[in-house]
Design brief:
351 residues; alpha+beta; two-stranded antiparallel ribbon
């Protein structure tokens, strides 16, 4: 007995196989409970936003809310510090600066005002000791307007007091990263936003990200980035892959590890966001959890602007919840539930 093969079936079979592979790739992890979480908290998170989860080279979950798209840029607030720290580390990798260099090596004005012992590491780790307004006061009176980053950083040197010796207290603020941002401008003779474009945004294909300003105010390395959700995913995949993005080395593995190393862990905490209570701070990023060997396993950089980017090295994924609406510290429970949903669906590989 012989069988006739329908030529139409032969043509359809490869397509069917591809569809099955595509379906299994997205059905591998059940992340549909995120839909319910977002729906239940719609009043809190607002109408516009995006939630993305990336693993194994692809998006395994995406949810676009309102008028947002994957490429819609939005202010990411304090998450900017993560980007700025990475930019600083590109200069460290090239040997142009050391984290333990004194700020006065590049900004002599700090030596004139009794601030000569501050290091670049102090600045990135929020231990510079330079007076900073509490976050609550900044929210009430607004950010002081400066026309250039140089003007702002010189103001810190001339007008801000040293309230404690560098490296003796942790005070989360915008002062340190902005000082370092100005140092990069001095070294390179380029503006901070141009450096970020050339060294971070362009190599990572972050086409809808910038630190540019349009109101004649100073560039803000601490708080001034605008990014799309998919752009920030690209940045975090580079961090997850130990400095490599699409086969290209952006940061050294050593620099990525240094950023994720808790700095000055024994110091008293004078000011920190409520959302970060119990976490440790590295360079521009929070270390939420560590594995049995002491290596950072969960890293994040949340912002009151509504950007909650984080990565889980043990589970091999990165995630961002990027919202147009500003949030506050009390909304940490949404972030915690989001992580719980993902962690239930994706098994960990660390001990």
């Amino acid at each position: 007995m012989s069988y006739k093969v329908n030529p139409i079936c032969l043509k359809c079979s490869p397509l069917l196989a591809l569809l099955l592979i595509f379906q299994s790739a997205f059905a591998q992890y059940d992340l549909t409970p995120i839909d319910q979480l977002l729906q239940q908290n719609q009043k809190t998170i607002g109408k516009n936003g995006v939630a993305l989860v990336w693993k194994d080279g692809k998006l395994v979950y995406q949810k676009v809310l309102g008028e947002f798209t994957l490429k819609t840029p939005s202010p990411v607030g304090n998450s900017s510090k993560w980007l700025t720290a990475a930019l600083v580390m590109t200069f460290v990798d090239e040997g142009k600066i050391s984290l333990d260099d004194k700020v006065t090596k590049y900004l002599p004005i700090y030596g004139k005002y009794m601030k000569g012992y501050i290091t670049i590491r102090n600045c990135l780790a929020n231990t510079s000791g330079v007076q900073a307004e509490p976050a609550s006061l900044l929210k009430l009176v607004g950010k002081r307007k400066f026309e250039t980053l140089e003007e702002e950083v010189n103001y810190y040197a001339e007008k801000r007091e040293i309230v404690t010796n560098p490296g003796t207290e942790f005070f989360y603020s915008n002062v340190g990263p902005n000082i370092v941002g100005r140092i990069l401008e001095v070294i390179s003779k380029k503006s901070f936003d141009r450096l970020m474009l050339e060294r971070i945004f362009r190599p990572l294909k972050m086409k809808n990200s910038s630190f540019s300003v349009f109101d004649n105010s100073a560039i803000d390395p601490s708080n001034g980035a605008q990014c799309s959700g998919i752009d920030f995913i690209n940045f975090m995949t580079m961090i997850l892959n130990k400095g490599t993005f699409e086969g290209k080395k952006i940061l050294s593995e050593k620099s990525v590890a240094e950023m994720a190393t808790p700095q000055f862990t024994s110091l008293p905490v004078k000011s920190a966001p409520k959302i970060a209570e119990g976490w440790k701070y590295g360079l521009g990023e929070w270390i939420e959890e560590s594995d049995s060997k002491g290596n950072a396993s969960v890293i994040s950089s949340p912002s009151l602007y509504g950007s909650w980017p984080f990565l889980d090295a043990c589970r091999g994924y990165v995630c961002i919840l990027l919202l147009e609406k500003e949030t506050n510290d009390e909304k940490k429970d949404i972030y915690v539930k989001l992580r719980e949903i993902i962690n239930q669906a994706i098994p960990q590989s660390c001990n």
